[in-house]
Give the backbone structure.
Amino acid sequence: MSAAMTEVSAVDPFAPASAQFALGGASLTSRRDDVASQVGVRPWGLRRALPAGAGRVLPKWTYDPVQQKAVDLTGRPLIESPIMGDPSANTTSTVDGEDGPSSEDWNND
Amino acid sequence: MTVLILAPEWDFTADRMVKALEERAARVARVDTAWFPQQAGIDARLRDGRWMGTLSAGGRAIALEGLRSVWYRSPSAFQFPAELSPTERNWAMSETKLGVGGVLAALPVKWINHPSRNADAAYKPVQLVTAARCGLTVADTLVTNLPDSVRDFAQAGETVTKAFGAAAIVEDGGRKTTFTHRLDDADLADLRGINVAAHQFQRWIPKSCEARVIVVGDQVFAAGIYAETAETYLDWRNDYSALWYERLEPPGDVVAGILEYCIQLGLTYGAFDFVIRPDGEWVFLECNAGGQYGWIEDAIGAPITDTLADLLVKGETT
């Protein structure tokens, strides 16, 4: 297996072609079962990559297209639930949440 | 007129925005681009120089010409039938991105932010030169894939390395993170793999704390982020439970630089990160044009969602 690779501009639904720098090339997405390459092959910047923390367990939820919000099993919006805490600490790991190159991330930053 | 929210289904901040817009009696439609093409459709026709027609999603028929504004909050990638080959999926992704994404991106409405502006603003080297041009203090920075350049840079002072983009990857069956790291002798003794990709190195900046500054239009909300552990002192993303916050008022020249930065990159919204040195100087680290603000809003009691909602309801393009 090869090392995990992501070309986010290929999957971002909107980012313009100009975000694909270089413009051509294959579109690669990360594969969950990829394994780290050997030292020297693996990018130096990934050497210290560590498993993210387990985070907290989220309640069961669904998206309600009428309310346009995430709801619990009774249909109550989760933002009205006291157990949810702050609104963007919403996943099981803590990474960077920016658009563009980091759009795969989903937590507070 | 409708406010369109483009966001993933699981996004509490977007949930809050729906509520805020409802409280303003605004018509709101929320769509995740992941619904295309299997759960959503588009019928767009070019009429008199603009796209008109319907976006069908989430049980709604959304008139393109009836949109007032769009809040772009990192919607998910299009989802295609599982039976497509990788080549077919790639082609379908590109066509849908250029087609659906293109129609929406061409809508002459208020965007917060327009995804093209976000994409342009995502490049850290662009951010750094823009910040410097706007009068903000920036850290000495090296971009390289050459080991000798790393050694040379590190020789001149304490150095950290951090990713240009995602601080996370998916590998070995799970998610891994790679946050800011302070270089030591062991790092410099073995730089194998530097040549495989571009890497970013910066001079370490002594800090009393860090700050996240959220810009919404001409409003600025700043939070001091105080670390309680060595790990969070180095990079606060290491452990959110080991942080505390307080609202700050940035110096006037920093506010002016931030607002000019947003003008230069065409951003209505931005999440800026700064280091505040012990002498009080604010040093720009980065600006995340799609950065999160929900937890900061709660921590410092800043009306960020309300301010965004007011702008979306107002809906002017300038």
In short: Residues 140-203 of chain B form a domain with the Dna Ligase; domain 1 fold (CATH 3.30.1490).
